[in-house]
């Protein structure tokens, strides 16, 4: 005759064979919180290290402290007022000679304008700031003989949009039509946005450039161009 099982022994065996219960497992919420805390500590550590390295590089002069335009060289004094964003160069820089079309569809080259100071404005009809500043460029041209100081608005609109280019320039009397539908200024002149205006000396070299809209009929612009036209 079998002896009855001890009740306590039976209970203990059942608990040993039973799968782990929620009581004996680490709570899921606790696991999640631990993971989040570890990630936060890692992010903070990386951020602190990055700041320390950047500050050290900044102190050593290996990174610029100002991401804005740099005015240097003999023309830096003109980077003021309406030309506060003007980037001037320590020495004149060569600019790649490209071909584009005039208002009559004739091919011309940038080098054709050597012998004059050129205010080379890269724009498009779909660029709102370009259209805002265009009247000031027209006013600037009215103050100079175009054989000495030329405002050259170079549109990068599509060829089929020539009528829109002409219409826009008619609103600013005195400015000629020039178009480059191949958009060469972006790759060959390093232009990343519009409007961008490049100032060329009488040798056809770049001496300054300004990215963005400006008031081109301001006195400081005239002072700069007069200095270059001497």
UniProtKB/TrEMBL annotation:
SUPFAM superfamilies: Thioredoxin-like (SSF52833). Keywords: Membrane, Redox-active center, Transmembrane, Transmembrane helix. Residues 89-230 form the Thioredoxin domain. The chain crosses the membrane at residues 32-54. Residues 10-21 have a biased composition (Polar residues). It holds the Pfam family AhpC-TSA. It comes from the Bacteria. Gene3D superfamilies: Glutaredoxin. Residues 1-25 are annotated as: Disordered. PANTHER family: PROTEIN DIPZ, THIOL:DISULFIDE INTERCHANGE PROTEIN DSBE. This is TlpA disulfide reductase family protein.
């Amino acid at each position: 005759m079998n002896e009855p099982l001890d009740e306590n022994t039976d209970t203990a065996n059942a608990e040993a064979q039973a799968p782990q219960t929620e009581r004996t497992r680490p709570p899921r919420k606790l696991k999640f919180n631990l993971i989040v805390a570890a990630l936060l500590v890692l992010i903070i550590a990386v951020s602190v290290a990055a700041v320390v390295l950047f500050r050290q590089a900044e102190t050593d002069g290996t990174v610029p402290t100002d991401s804005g335009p740099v005015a240097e060289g003999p023309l830096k004094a003109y980077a003021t007022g309406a030309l506060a964003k003007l980037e001037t160069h320590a020495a004149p820089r060569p600019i790649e000679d490209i071909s584009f079309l005039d208002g009559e569809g004739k091919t011309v080259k940038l080098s054709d304008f050597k012998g004059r100071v050129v205010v080379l404005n890269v724009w498009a009809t779909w660029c709102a700031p370009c259209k805002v500043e265009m009247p000031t460029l027209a006013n600037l041209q009215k103050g100079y003989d175009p054989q000495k100081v030329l405002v050259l608005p170079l549109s990068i609109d599509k060829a089929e949009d020539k009528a829109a280019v002409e219409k826009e320039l008619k609103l600013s009397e005195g400015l000629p039509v020039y178009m480059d539908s191949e958009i060469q200024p972006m790759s060959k002149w390093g232009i990343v946005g519009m409007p961008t205006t490049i100032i060329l000396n009488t040798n056809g070299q770049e001496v300054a450039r300004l990215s963005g809209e400006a008031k081109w009929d301001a006195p400081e612009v005239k002072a700069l161009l007069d200095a270059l036209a001497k």
